[in-house]
Amino acid sequence: MGCSMSVIDVLLQHKKAGELFYDKSRMEYGFNYTRECDPISLTMPYQKSSYIWKHHLHPIFEMNLPEGYLFEVFKNHLQKEFGYIDEFLIFSFIAPNIESRLNFKSEFDKTAFAAVDLNEVLQNDTEDTFLRLVRVFLSRNAVSGIQPKTLALIKDKENLPLKEYIIKTWGEEYPRLAENEYFCMQAVSKAGVMIPVVRMSEHKKFLLVEKFDFNKKSGEFRGFEELLVLMGKNRNRKYSGSYEQVAKFVYAVSTDKIFSMEQLFKTIVMCYLLRNGDAHLKNFGVLYDSSFTDIRLAPAYDIVTTTAYIFNDKPALTMFGKKVWWGKADLIRFGTEHCYLSPRQAASMYALCLQAVSDTLAELKNYMKLAPDFVPVATRILDSWQSSLSGKSQKELSNEIIRNWRADKKA
Questions:
Q1: I want to staple 17 with a disulfide (CB 3.0 to 4.6 A). Which of 12, 132, 269, 301 is the partner?
Q2: How many beta carbons lie within 10 A of that of residue 360, not counting itself?
Q3: What dihedral angle (degrees, nearest 10) is formed by the CA atoms of 134, 69, 385, 347?
Q4: How far is CA 260 from CA 193, 255, 265, in A?
Q5: Using 50, 70 and 90 to split pLDDT, how confident is the model at 3?
Q6: Is pLDDT above 90 for 244?
Q7: What are the residues whose beta carbons fall under 8 Å from the beta carbon of 75, sequence distance 6 or more?
Q8: In the chain, where the domains are located
Q9: Contact, 118 vs 129, CB < 8 A?
């Protein structure tokens, strides 16, 4: 690993498609196709010349790199072993164990993993269990995101195939995050948006999210690419962009444009209503089959009420040039101008989203009676949701507060 040039074989359908290399002296990452074949990414069709990327891995590879908590784990592990760390070393370490449309061979060996029992994880959601899972599945952890999480192979019943889950927990900075995300995802599902299988552990310490890129009917992995990849951006630019651009790229690549745009519109509306300020370019993606005849928006994922922890949080991307919480009129305008919906369709979908939040709010209130430790965070979630149910924009709500204050002062 100490030589100037390092190489990873990139396999498509288990046949070598090309080579990913890193030239340390030039700080260049490159990819060469070694045979004419289907593209390894929607953004990288076959060509004879190299795809060169300066300073960072190509987005299709970089989207697998760990962030936040997991990055610190990898940094400590690999720096101790090799005395340095860079993106290529991390990717080389995890690449042989990535199970997806693409497979990889590097200087590291593929690891044989023993699956863990679903009930064991759900019932023993302790810090020790999480740390054990991180250690066991460390070299499989091609998963991004800031919060503590790990991939794990889970077995449910003996006769069913193993499933890959992302297991999320939370630290002191974002308490009760599992419950927050669970109820947000339930609300999103009520709005008719596709979501992965989501399970909450017995003591609410873990949220288990089943990976959705495996087609159970065909037994094949579907391609998955984040919007960050489609836009040709690296992860340090995940907050640079607009929801208009997201809609533009999803529409451009989708084969089922009606489905994708309806799903995208409702997802974005729900992110606004739920006050999810972390709906950035890595939190939208597309799925596609091996023939590229079915390309559509992927299920919604990583949706939480961030204003429960950051009171003045803003949307991750701009809409109409601003990062503000728009209300009903502007969201419907976004749907008609950028998601190709009629005013009637957009208004109907907005109403459906509003009802989904209202119904989940009622469920959350009942749940709070059974979970007193969740009440402080849940109260802030409820406050955020109730403010959005008015259908007013952030500016309209602020003006209303000022008017009421002035009226009270005069009285």
A1: 12
A2: 23
A3: -90
A4: 10, 9, 9
A5: very low
A6: yes
A7: 85
A8: 5-86, 223-402
A9: no
Which residues does residue 10 pair with via DSSP β-bridges, in sequence order?
18, 104
Radius of gyration, alpha carbons of the chain: 22
Q: What is the pLDDT of residue 411?
A: 57
- Nearest Cα to Cα of residue 107 among 82, 70, 130: 82
From start to end of 109-235, where are the E strands? 116-117, 149-155, 163-168, 198-200, 207-210, 214-215, 220-221, 223-226
| Residue 404 binned pLDDT confidence (cut-offs 50, 70, 90) | low
* Secondary element (H or E) of residue 29: strand 28-33
Query: Under a CB-based contact definition with an 8 Å cutoff, are residues 230 and 245 in contact?
Result: no
Q: Tell me the CATH architecture of domain 223-402.
A: Orthogonal Bundle (1.10)
Q: Give mean pLDDT, residues 66-72.
A: 89
Cα dihedral value 116, 122, 128, 130, nearest 10: 70
Helix extents (H) in 339-393: 343-370, 375-388
Of the candidates 96, 221, 217, 210, the residue with the CA atom closest to the CA atom of residue 153: 210
- pLDDT for the residue 2: 42
CA count, 13 A, side-chain hemisphere, 256: 15
